[in-house]
Write a structure and sequence with these properties.
With 248 residues, the chain is α/β, with parallel strands linked by helices. It has 2 domains: 130 residues, 3-Layer(aba) Sandwich (Rossmann fold), CATH 3.40.50; 92 residues, no CATH class. Helix content is 36%, strand content 27%. The longest helix is centred in the last third of the chain and has 17 residues. 33% of the residues are buried.
Protein backbone atom coordinates (compact mmCIF):
# COMPACT_ATOMS: atom_id res chain seq x y z
CA UNK A 1 0.00 0.00 0.00
CA UNK A 2 1.17 3.51 -0.85
CA UNK A 3 -0.02 6.79 0.63
CA UNK A 4 0.83 10.49 0.76
CA UNK A 5 -0.42 12.70 3.59
CA UNK A 6 0.21 16.44 3.70
CA UNK A 7 -0.81 18.50 6.73
CA UNK A 8 -0.45 22.27 6.46
CA UNK A 9 2.69 21.93 4.31
CA UNK A 10 4.52 25.09 3.21
CA UNK A 11 7.78 25.59 1.30
CA UNK A 12 9.79 28.82 1.57
CA UNK A 13 12.82 29.82 -0.47
CA UNK A 14 15.15 32.40 1.11
CA UNK A 15 16.28 35.23 -1.17
CA UNK A 16 19.76 36.19 0.01
CA UNK A 17 21.09 39.77 -0.19
CA UNK A 18 17.60 41.06 -0.90
CA UNK A 19 16.72 42.68 2.43
CA UNK A 20 18.44 46.00 1.73
CA UNK A 21 17.30 46.41 -1.86
CA UNK A 22 13.88 48.01 -1.93
CA UNK A 23 13.56 47.92 -5.74
CA UNK A 24 14.52 44.24 -5.85
CA UNK A 25 12.06 43.50 -3.04
CA UNK A 26 9.31 45.31 -4.93
CA UNK A 27 10.09 43.43 -8.15
CA UNK A 28 10.02 40.08 -6.34
CA UNK A 29 6.74 41.07 -4.71
CA UNK A 30 5.18 41.85 -8.09
CA UNK A 31 6.60 38.71 -9.76
CA UNK A 32 5.40 36.38 -7.01
CA UNK A 33 1.93 37.82 -6.61
CA UNK A 34 2.82 39.17 -3.16
CA UNK A 35 4.02 35.80 -1.85
CA UNK A 36 6.89 37.57 -0.12
CA UNK A 37 7.73 37.62 3.57
CA UNK A 38 10.61 37.20 5.95
CA UNK A 39 11.78 34.35 8.13
CA UNK A 40 12.69 34.59 11.86
CA UNK A 41 16.26 35.59 10.86
CA UNK A 42 14.99 38.54 8.86
CA UNK A 43 15.85 37.01 5.48
CA UNK A 44 13.48 37.73 2.63
CA UNK A 45 11.63 34.55 1.64
CA UNK A 46 9.37 33.63 -1.23
CA UNK A 47 6.60 31.25 -0.22
CA UNK A 48 6.32 28.73 -3.07
CA UNK A 49 3.69 26.48 -1.41
CA UNK A 50 1.38 27.41 1.44
CA UNK A 51 -0.78 25.35 3.78
CA UNK A 52 -1.27 22.29 1.58
CA UNK A 53 -3.64 19.68 3.04
CA UNK A 54 -4.44 16.48 1.15
CA UNK A 55 -4.24 12.69 1.38
CA UNK A 56 -3.59 10.33 -1.54
CA UNK A 57 -4.11 6.57 -1.42
CA UNK A 58 -3.83 3.52 -3.68
CA UNK A 59 -5.75 4.03 -6.90
CA UNK A 60 -5.49 7.82 -6.93
CA UNK A 61 -4.59 9.34 -10.31
CA UNK A 62 -4.06 13.02 -9.56
CA UNK A 63 -3.69 15.79 -12.11
CA UNK A 64 -2.05 19.05 -11.02
CA UNK A 65 -3.40 22.14 -12.77
CA UNK A 66 -2.21 25.71 -12.45
CA UNK A 67 -0.53 28.43 -14.48
CA UNK A 68 3.26 28.67 -14.68
CA UNK A 69 4.59 29.64 -11.26
CA UNK A 70 1.54 28.25 -9.44
CA UNK A 71 3.67 25.68 -7.57
CA UNK A 72 3.18 22.47 -9.59
CA UNK A 73 6.90 21.80 -10.16
CA UNK A 74 7.72 22.69 -6.54
CA UNK A 75 5.10 20.22 -5.33
CA UNK A 76 6.49 17.46 -7.59
CA UNK A 77 10.01 18.14 -6.29
CA UNK A 78 8.70 18.10 -2.72
CA UNK A 79 7.07 14.71 -3.36
CA UNK A 80 10.27 13.34 -4.92
CA UNK A 81 12.38 14.42 -1.93
CA UNK A 82 14.34 17.20 -3.67
CA UNK A 83 12.77 19.75 -1.29
CA UNK A 84 11.75 19.45 2.37
CA UNK A 85 8.72 21.21 3.87
CA UNK A 86 9.59 24.50 5.62
CA UNK A 87 6.62 23.83 7.90
CA UNK A 88 3.88 21.26 8.29
CA UNK A 89 4.23 17.50 7.92
CA UNK A 90 4.54 15.37 4.77
CA UNK A 91 4.33 11.59 5.24
CA UNK A 92 5.02 9.52 2.12
CA UNK A 93 4.77 5.71 2.17
CA UNK A 94 5.89 3.77 -0.89
CA UNK A 95 8.81 3.88 -3.29
CA UNK A 96 8.78 6.85 -5.65
CA UNK A 97 9.67 7.00 -9.33
CA UNK A 98 10.08 10.30 -11.14
CA UNK A 99 9.80 10.90 -14.87
CA UNK A 100 10.34 14.65 -14.45
CA UNK A 101 13.82 14.72 -15.99
CA UNK A 102 14.51 11.48 -17.82
CA UNK A 103 17.95 12.66 -19.03
CA UNK A 104 19.27 13.39 -15.53
CA UNK A 105 22.64 11.71 -14.95
CA UNK A 106 23.27 10.94 -18.63
CA UNK A 107 26.98 11.33 -19.51
CA UNK A 108 27.71 12.32 -23.15
CA UNK A 109 31.23 10.82 -23.03
CA UNK A 110 30.05 7.40 -21.80
CA UNK A 111 28.57 4.76 -24.11
CA UNK A 112 24.87 4.02 -24.26
CA UNK A 113 25.44 0.80 -22.34
CA UNK A 114 27.36 2.62 -19.58
CA UNK A 115 24.65 5.27 -19.41
CA UNK A 116 22.03 2.58 -18.87
CA UNK A 117 23.86 1.59 -15.67
CA UNK A 118 24.35 5.25 -14.62
CA UNK A 119 20.71 6.19 -15.10
CA UNK A 120 19.57 2.91 -13.55
CA UNK A 121 21.60 3.65 -10.41
CA UNK A 122 19.98 7.11 -10.16
CA UNK A 123 16.58 5.43 -10.38
CA UNK A 124 17.52 3.28 -7.38
CA UNK A 125 18.21 0.06 -9.31
CA UNK A 126 21.07 -2.21 -8.27
CA UNK A 127 23.76 -3.17 -10.79
CA UNK A 128 22.29 -6.69 -10.82
CA UNK A 129 18.79 -5.37 -11.58
CA UNK A 130 20.07 -3.24 -14.46
CA UNK A 131 22.10 -6.16 -15.83
CA UNK A 132 19.00 -8.38 -15.82
CA UNK A 133 17.04 -5.81 -17.86
CA UNK A 134 19.77 -4.38 -20.10
CA UNK A 135 18.97 -6.47 -23.18
CA UNK A 136 15.29 -5.53 -22.93
CA UNK A 137 16.26 -1.83 -22.59
CA UNK A 138 18.59 -1.98 -25.61
CA UNK A 139 15.98 -3.75 -27.70
CA UNK A 140 13.25 -1.29 -26.73
CA UNK A 141 15.46 1.74 -27.48
CA UNK A 142 16.19 0.41 -31.01
CA UNK A 143 19.82 1.60 -30.76
CA UNK A 144 21.44 -1.56 -32.14
CA UNK A 145 25.24 -1.29 -32.33
CA UNK A 146 25.09 2.38 -31.30
CA UNK A 147 24.61 1.23 -27.69
CA UNK A 148 28.39 0.79 -27.49
CA UNK A 149 29.15 4.21 -28.98
CA UNK A 150 29.61 7.40 -26.90
CA UNK A 151 26.37 9.26 -26.33
CA UNK A 152 27.77 12.42 -27.97
CA UNK A 153 27.54 10.59 -31.32
CA UNK A 154 23.77 10.13 -30.87
CA UNK A 155 21.05 12.20 -32.51
CA UNK A 156 18.56 13.91 -30.18
CA UNK A 157 15.99 11.21 -30.97
CA UNK A 158 18.40 8.38 -30.10
CA UNK A 159 19.34 10.10 -26.85
CA UNK A 160 15.66 10.44 -25.87
CA UNK A 161 14.85 6.85 -26.82
CA UNK A 162 17.64 5.58 -24.56
CA UNK A 163 16.64 7.84 -21.64
CA UNK A 164 12.99 6.83 -22.04
CA UNK A 165 13.76 3.10 -22.27
CA UNK A 166 15.77 3.16 -19.03
CA UNK A 167 13.49 5.49 -17.07
CA UNK A 168 10.35 3.48 -17.80
CA UNK A 169 11.90 0.15 -16.74
CA UNK A 170 11.17 0.71 -13.05
CA UNK A 171 7.71 0.07 -11.61
CA UNK A 172 7.37 2.44 -8.62
CA UNK A 173 4.44 2.50 -6.21
CA UNK A 174 4.20 6.30 -6.61
CA UNK A 175 4.85 7.80 -10.05
CA UNK A 176 5.53 11.52 -10.56
CA UNK A 177 5.31 13.12 -14.00
CA UNK A 178 5.52 16.60 -15.49
CA UNK A 179 3.32 16.23 -18.58
CA UNK A 180 2.87 12.97 -20.48
CA UNK A 181 6.06 11.60 -22.03
CA UNK A 182 5.96 10.99 -25.75
CA UNK A 183 9.25 10.60 -27.59
CA UNK A 184 10.64 9.55 -30.96
CA UNK A 185 9.28 9.24 -34.46
CA UNK A 186 5.83 7.92 -35.32
CA UNK A 187 6.74 4.23 -35.00
CA UNK A 188 8.54 4.61 -31.69
CA UNK A 189 5.87 6.93 -30.32
CA UNK A 190 3.28 4.12 -30.47
CA UNK A 191 5.62 1.89 -28.44
CA UNK A 192 6.29 4.73 -26.00
CA UNK A 193 2.56 5.41 -25.54
CA UNK A 194 1.88 1.71 -24.84
CA UNK A 195 4.79 1.61 -22.33
CA UNK A 196 3.55 4.77 -20.58
CA UNK A 197 -0.01 3.43 -20.34
CA UNK A 198 1.28 0.17 -18.85
CA UNK A 199 3.52 2.05 -16.39
CA UNK A 200 0.68 4.28 -15.20
CA UNK A 201 -1.74 1.37 -14.75
CA UNK A 202 0.88 -0.56 -12.76
CA UNK A 203 1.57 2.25 -10.27
CA UNK A 204 -0.42 2.66 -7.04
CA UNK A 205 -0.51 6.46 -7.08
CA UNK A 206 0.06 8.79 -10.05
CA UNK A 207 0.71 12.53 -9.71
CA UNK A 208 1.01 14.35 -13.05
CA UNK A 209 1.31 18.09 -13.69
CA UNK A 210 -0.28 19.15 -16.95
CA UNK A 211 -1.72 21.97 -19.03
CA UNK A 212 -3.88 19.55 -21.02
CA UNK A 213 -7.59 19.25 -20.37
CA UNK A 214 -7.77 16.00 -22.38
CA UNK A 215 -4.95 14.42 -20.38
CA UNK A 216 -6.47 15.08 -16.95
CA UNK A 217 -9.93 14.02 -18.16
CA UNK A 218 -8.70 10.72 -19.61
CA UNK A 219 -5.95 9.80 -17.12
CA UNK A 220 -6.97 11.21 -13.73
CA UNK A 221 -9.72 10.50 -11.21
CA UNK A 222 -8.89 13.58 -9.13
CA UNK A 223 -7.53 17.05 -9.92
CA UNK A 224 -5.81 19.58 -7.66
CA UNK A 225 -5.75 23.18 -8.93
CA UNK A 226 -2.87 25.24 -7.52
CA UNK A 227 -2.81 29.03 -7.54
CA UNK A 228 -0.03 31.11 -5.97
CA UNK A 229 1.18 28.05 -4.08
CA UNK A 230 -2.20 27.30 -2.49
CA UNK A 231 -4.87 24.72 -3.31
CA UNK A 232 -7.68 26.61 -5.02
CA UNK A 233 -9.72 23.50 -5.79
CA UNK A 234 -9.48 19.75 -5.18
CA UNK A 235 -12.08 17.44 -6.67
CA UNK A 236 -13.19 15.25 -9.55
CA UNK A 237 -11.75 15.99 -13.04
CA UNK A 238 -15.06 17.17 -14.56
CA UNK A 239 -15.72 19.78 -11.86
CA UNK A 240 -12.18 21.12 -11.53
CA UNK A 241 -11.45 21.12 -15.29
CA UNK A 242 -14.69 23.02 -15.97
CA UNK A 243 -13.74 25.65 -13.38
CA UNK A 244 -10.12 25.92 -14.56
CA UNK A 245 -10.47 25.70 -18.35
CA UNK A 246 -14.05 26.94 -18.59
CA UNK A 247 -17.06 24.99 -19.85
CA UNK A 248 -16.72 23.29 -23.25
Amino acid sequence: MASIEFQNVSVDFPIYNASGRSLKKRLIQVATGGQLGSDPNGRVVVRALEGLDFTLNDGDRVGLLGHNGAGKSTLLRLLSGVYEPSSGTAVIKGDIGSLIDISLGIDPEATGRENIFLRGALLGMSKKEVASKIEEIIEFSELGDFVDMPLRTYSTGMHLRLAFAVSTTVRPEILLMDEWLSVGDEGFRHKAEARMTELVSATNILVIASHSRDLVMHTCNRVIWLEHGKIRMDGDPETVAAAYFGAH
